[in-house]
Amino acid sequence: MINIWELGEKINIKPKEDFLIRINRLISKNYSSKEKFYNQFKKQIIIPYNTFRNVLKYSYYKSGFYASLNVFIVCCEKLNIEKEELQLNIESYKTEGGYNIIVDPILPIKITPIFDMLLAHHIADGTVINPKRGRQVYFGYRQFDEELRRLYVTKLESVFGKILFNKEDYIKTTTRPYCPVVLSQLFFRLYKLNERSFLSRSARIPKEVINKNKNYILSVLLAFIIDEGNIDSTLICIKLKNPNLVDDLYLICKKLDYESKFNIKGDYGTLYILRNGMKKLFNDYKELIKIYPCAYLGKLDRKIEDGLKIYNRAIYKTKGNKNLILDMLKVENLTINQIAYRISMTRQGVRFHIHNLEKMSKIIKKGFIGKNNIVYSIKT
Predict the structure, then answer these.
(1) pLDDT, tens digit (0-9, with 9 covering 90-100), for 22-45
(2) What are the structural domains, with CATH classification, of the chain?
(3) What pTM was computed for the model?
(4) Pick from 290, 343, 291, 280: nearest CA to 317
(5) Cβ atoms of residues 258 and 225 within 8 Å
(6) Which of 42, 103, 151, 270 could connect to 92 by a Cys-Cys bridge, CB 3.0–4.6 Å?
């Protein structure tokens, strides 16, 4: 667990009103006045007296201001209040100079499988943003699918608390939601990472994460499937221009006993999670989302489920599939995807028959839809 005072030095907070009242009472009781208290500890408090006097008024926070966490840590230390009690009386917090606020915070922060899933999202499809004027770096997460984008923010909020973004309807209007600075810094600090740790060609999954239990490493793998996976019927493929990172994912698959293969070709590493591995992964995933619903795969959940259902249908093994495909192409020109969808068959199965029909000179390539979708036609 991570306490708020372990997040770094530049943390600003809004304390609860009752807690402020208590602090003021104890100062009056033990030191007679705020000024006497301040004069005795001003070297530790650092801020000017007028500012100190204001941060002990709740009206100060109603105006939208925040105060340095350090000021309240000093107050608690001198007034014999446990820091853990201070932590439970924080209404909201943010980074000094930051815009996005964590309200109703979850403190102390628990390192759950969703925490490591967020780390994996930042490795797979995140960008490290280094702002000007000496501000701390933070993560942006590129995601064009709105459902998956909202799930990313739900994950953040399940670990840290509600995030108050500075723009109205932020998630709907952006394709790159940000992880607030104070939270981004925690990922760097906890696993001793730096900006280079998130470069696409050199990133690795920290060994501390790979050595964790089933739910943690499964969550990491799911993040990469969301961001970098290609689901083709009963096969999941992850291909990255970083073979070492793909090898980390392969190691996770072996730890989880998912049937899989890994190969390197040129600068690319490719992980294939095979049919039996995909079935086991999907069963484990269903159990995981009972505990952590925000690990949901969105549209990919439905795609995997449909692929597994198709494989189990009798038509998958019907010997007449080749003739059925040939009859369809006599009527109209079609792609492999179009054929697979219409007859509820895996794309791998359709490809098998298409290649045989080509060898038999029964069909020909007629053109393309997009870059890679070949259109097939009957040979006349």
Answers:
(1) 999 999 999 999 999 999 999 999
(2) 4-96 (no CATH), 113-275 (3.10.28.10), 314-378 (1.10.10.10)
(3) 0.80
(4) 343
(5) no
(6) 103
